[in-house]
Design a protein that fits this description.
1 helix, 12 strands, alpha+beta
Length: 202
């Protein structure tokens, strides 16, 4: 084999290696994007003691309480998001096979509830008590939530699965569907165990 032919073969092999490397890298990026697109839950503990679930453009925190279900909405930056125009439903599935349908309604915090106050102009300004925004001096507003009433006072951890469907969301992510399972810590604080059930829908 002549030197010129050998040099050409080496160059082609090098180019093929680079192409394969780029292809593998593109596949990894595509896979990662798909995982985020299908909204796999993050599993992080949220501001209200529940676990968070991430959509394409929203983050949701679900909290099981003795009187029902509370769902808080945040931006991807974990700042409070408005529920204006949004609605939702929940199907509760109990371990004995029974089910219960809930209609979610926006609700403000009740007296004694942990509450996050934020500035509508500067959502990154968040406090645990009412006051004014240090950036624009506007009054901070209390974050509201979705609430679905149900008697869960006797439900043992891991016995209630909530299939949650929210619509009317802002941005390009108009609706999401995800699943959470109830659980309670030893200190009585509400907790959730979340799983994805088909991912966010746009």
């Amino acid at each position: 084999m002549s030197k010129s032919v050998r040099r050409t073969a080496i160059c082609l092999a090098a180019l093929l290696g680079v192409a394969l490397g780029l292809s593998a890298q593109a596949a990894t990026v595509s896979s990662g994007s798909a995982t985020h697109h299908h909204a796999v839950r993050s599993g992080h503990r949220g501001l209200y003691g529940g676990k968070t679930w991430e959509g394409k453009e929203h983050v949701f925190e679900t909290v099981f309480t003795p009187d029902g279900l509370r769902i808080y909405m945040f931006t991807p930056e974990r700042t409070p998001a408005s529920l204006e125009g949004a609605s939702g439903t929940v199907t509760l599935k109990f371990k004995d096979g029974s089910t219960k349908e809930l209609t979610l309604a926006p609700q403000g915090p009740a007296s004694g509830d942990k509450t996050i106050y934020y500035c509508t102009m500067h959502p990154d300004v968040m406090k645990t008590e009412a006051g004014k925004c240090p950036k624009c001096n506007m009054d901070l507003v209390a974050q509201n939530r979705f609430f679905g009433a149900a008697d869960l006072s006797q439900a043992k951890p891991g016995t209630v699965t909530a299939e949650i469907h929210l619509t009317g969301l802002g941005g390009n992510e108009k609706e999401v569907t995800f699943t959470e399972v109830n659980g309670h810590g030893r200190n009585g604080n509400p907790k959730t165990e979340g799983t994805s059930s088909g991912g966010a829908k746009s």
